[in-house]
Amino acid sequence: MKKFTRLLWGIVLAVAFAMPGPVFAEYPEKPITYIIPFNPGGESDVTARLQEPHLEKFLGVPVNITHKPGGGGAVAWSEFQRTAKPDGYTIIGCNIPHIIGQPLIRKEAGYTTDGFKIIMWFHFTPNALVVSKDSPFKTLDDFIQYAKAHPAAVTVGGSGTYSANHLEALRLEKAAGIDLTYVPHTGTGPIIPALMGGHISAAMTYSMVGVNYKDRLRTLAVASDERVPALPDVPTFKELGYDIVGGAFRGVAAPLGTPQPIVDKLAHAFTETNKIIANKQVGLGFVMTYATGDEALKLVERMRAAYGDVLNEIRQKQK
């Protein structure tokens, strides 16, 4: 009997030690670091601040937001893939098409599109072409006609390179037959003072900027299939004759190798949080999404295909 008991305990211990860490410790047990790869004040930061208290409620630990701007997100994403431990205590905001375009076009990006364990894609923000209230451009046609008459003279700010903003500016150039000068910024936050201060002619930014600064900025067009509810008087590019639809999907990722039970717990917390903050986000110009698991991966593949043509054109020009 004793021999059988020892054998039984040996089997139990062997199985237990073969199981992942959560058998011994209930995740999470300590604060979680949530990295935002852009400056404070932009869409990613605003969203994280809305998420923070609800994530803390669902996860039961503090969620510490930290900013690591640079390279349109590439600085933080490359460091994350190099150094973050797959234990669920470091997560990072991710953007499409940034994480698709940057590694494809820039050899020095330092990270790969598939080097993240996507937890969830939680919203989409249409691109928007915005100018200051005192700009001579009252309409999109004003903007395009001036750009045609003054090649490369119109400066357009945006968040990062090979990002949603940058790629949309390139698509507008092609669709309208104009030549713009794109000015990359480290995030949406710095674009606002640059625009208001007259340092750039316009910004290819996101619908949230048009909503938040509607008293000081003028939105000429939005890159969505239908008008944004929070900007009902702003036409779409499609209405004005330009087949331009695009923007940024935002989500959150863990390092590759993070145990699936941890990813699932984080996905649940973000999903429930999304439901709570949805009304506020929609009012700011966001479109809510709930892509987790296989759906999150399928979204990456769909957008990789959607931006394929413009990215391949850029690659050909670089050769």
UniProtKB/TrEMBL annotation:
CDD domains, sorted: PBP2_Bug_TTT
InterPro entries per UniProt: BUG (IPR005064), Bug_dom1 (IPR042100)
Signal peptide annotation: 1-25
Domain of life: Bacteria
Keyword annotations: Receptor, Signal
Pfam families xrefs: TctC
Similarity comment: Belongs to the UPF0065 (bug) family.
Protein name in the entry: Tripartite-type tricarboxylate transporter, receptor component TctC
